[in-house]
Write a structure and sequence with these properties.
This protein is an alpha+beta fold and 574 residues long. Helices cover 34% and strands 22% of the residues.
């Protein structure tokens, strides 16, 4: 007994010494390790901001989704009392409860939740479901199955479907890849938060332990300038015209004259089965082409602003004209020599008359006005990949290009550049930057408008008003008659330019019509550009009807009052 008592005493002393060592010497260190083992930090993903149209309707938004994963070891040890008082648990019972909620086969799910005999280790992170809505996860959580965990994710939704898809853009895993999703990514992306808590061995949060939460800050809402009703109508009208004309693709832009807000922007390509599809890229700002006769507006503005001509200046316009350096130019149709005013040259869209005007301007002046109106430089719209176009320096122009640039050949631009030329004329000669972002709304609901675009006076208001009146003659008396809109005065210009085909041969055409309404108080500019139409190559025949349709709908949608005055036009001949 004494020996046994001695051994017990020794053991108790040893335990006491060990306990004292654990408590006093290593106590703080072990306490920290224990807390670290049971402490878990879960990231709280910030919600990506919405993109809305000009009326606040969401066109891109994020919704919360969950990935559900399982710990096979914890599930194997889990059990609970059923409503009947029976103790049940393990993978089979867990699968029986989960399968109806996840729309899975219970037997197959039970097999997944059970550790395979061929493996030595449990799968501690077995994904059993993805893209689970919050209400489904709430039902799963209510089952209180130890070993079933969520991982919060965010899914991007586009309520408008395919409408404006190219402009809105696409998302990668965590950031935008194109369109506004890309260019506004820093504003749309919020700041992630976190939640730190202590959990038991079976994964439950310890209610008595503190929970520290750093809330996530969601991204800003980006308010675009788009009107989705007009956008839908524009895309539908373009689709129909591509089918009617057999064109390979096209662009339509609706832009506010005074604010330079882009109200609608559509890109389409035709497919081999005569249907249309979204280009998948922003051709309106990325594709370049020779603008053709729509660029003659710049020539007219340059002639008036420099004083070399007036709207009623007289010219003799043959169907074929040879310059002093031996370059011969022709009009689209053979005709007798006409006595035309400057206005008549624009109304007829005469190349030979335009070349005569160009001869009155130095090469540097021709270049300066093309450049001032925006050719050869990016507009600055909030979209990636915009092309600056092609405009060579005047000392690089050959003997023919120095004249052809004045009727839109030998240089190239994108659809938005050409549209903005007409917006500048309609805005009294003031040029501003086309834009798609009206402003942003932060997490607190505070709206901040985008900085107002600076304007530049490109030509005088007198010059701009005169050119606008000359463009009205194009619609009333010239090649743009199909662009008329009932109840409104319209000014516009047709365009046809050669374009290279897949083999680099100039067998293709770009046909266009760009116009403004109402002339007495310009509100919007609409451009319609078709690539390689088959029924006709003339913009007045294939593009102007779409212009009239889109312009009429847009004016009514924006509640622009009908024209209250009658046109007072310059004479087109003498």
């Amino acid at each position: 007994m004494r020996f046994v008592s001695f051994l017990v005493t020794v053991l108790l002393c040893a335990f006491a010494l060990r306990l004292g060592q654990v408590q006093l010497v290593y106590g703080d260190e072990l306490r920290e390790k224990a807390q670290a083992m049971r402490t878990k930090t879960m990231p709280l993903k910030a919600e990506r901001g919405q993109i809305t149209d000009r009326h606040g309707v969401a066109i891109a938004k994020s919704v919360t989704r969950y990935k559900v994963f399982a710990d096979q070891e914890l599930i194997e040890k889990w059990s609970q009392l059923t409503p009947d008082g029976e103790k049940k648990g393990g993978p089979r019972y867990a699968a029986e409860l989960l399968a109806p909620l996840l729309d899975l086969n219970a037997q197959e799910l039970a097999a997944e939740l059970t550790k395979s005999p061929e493996t030595d280790r449990y799968n501690k992170y077995l994904t059993i479901a993805t893209d689970i809505p919050p209400e489904t996860w709430d039902a799963i959580r209510a089952l209180r199955i130890s070993g079933i965990f969520p991982e919060s994710t965010s899914k991007r939704m586009y309520p408008a479907g395919e409408t404006a898809k190219s402009i809105i853009g696409a998302m990668g895993t965590d950031e935008g890849l194109s369109g506004l999703e890309y260019s506004q990514n820093s504003l749309l992306t919020g700041t992630d938060g976190s939640m730190t808590y202590e959990q038991s061995r079976n994964g439950h949060i310890l209610p008595s332990a503190p929970v520290t939460e750093v809330p996530a800050n969601s991204g800003h809402t980006v308010v675009s300038t788009l009107d989705m009703d007009i956008q839908w109508h524009v895309e539908n009208a373009l689709d129909e015209q591509l089918k009617k004309t057999g064109a390979r693709g096209g662009y339509v832009i609706v832009q506010d004259v005074k604010t330079c807000e882009v109200i609608a922007l559509a890109d389409r390509s035709a497919t081999s089965d005569d249907t249309t599809s979204i280009t998948g890229r922003l051709g309106s700002v990325q594709d370049i082409f020779e603008p053709g006769s729509t660029a003659k507006v710049v020539t007219m503005a340059a002639a008036l602003e420099t004083g070399v001509a007036t709207p009623t200046s007289k010219f003799r316009v043959p169907d074929q004209y040879t310059t002093s350096n031996g370059q011969t130019f022709r009009d689209a149709h053979e005709h007798a020599t006409h006595n035309r005013t400057l206005t008549g040259i624009l109304a007829d869209s005469s190349n030979t008359g335009t070349v005569q005007i160009a001869e009155l301007l130095t090469k540097q002046v021709r270049y300066d006005y093309l450049s001032k109106f925006g050719f050869g430089q990016r507009t600055g719209i909030e979209l990636g990949g915009e092309s600056r176009g092609l405009l060579a320096e005047p000392d690089q122009w050959d003997g023919r290009t120095q004249y052809s640039v004045m009727f839109g050949q030998g240089m190239a631009g994108n659809a938005l550049q050409s549209t903005n030329v007409f917006a500048t004329i309609a805005n009294g000669g003031q040029q501003c930057t086309p834009h798609l972002v009206a402003g942003t709304t932060d997490q607190d609901g505070t709206y901040t408008p985008s900085p107002k675009a600076e304007t530049r006076q490109i030509v005088s208001k007198e010059t701009a008003d005169a050119v606008l009146s000359m463009m009205e003659s194009v619609v009333v008396e010239g090649s743009g008659a199909a662009g008329k809109v009932s109840g409104y005065r319209v000014a516009g210009k047709t365009g046809t330019a050669q374009a290279a085909d897949e083999n680099g041969q100039l067998t293709s055409f770009v046909s266009s019509f760009i116009g403004v309404a109402p002339v007495d108080d310009p509100a919007i500019v609409v451009s319609v550009i078709l690539r390689d139409p088959k029924t006709s190559v003339y913009g007045g025949e294939v593009a102007a009807p779409v212009f009239a349709d889109v312009m009429a709908y847009s004016l009514q949608r924006l509640e622009v009052e009908p024209t209250g005055s009658r046109p007072s036009l310059y004479p087109i001949d003498w």
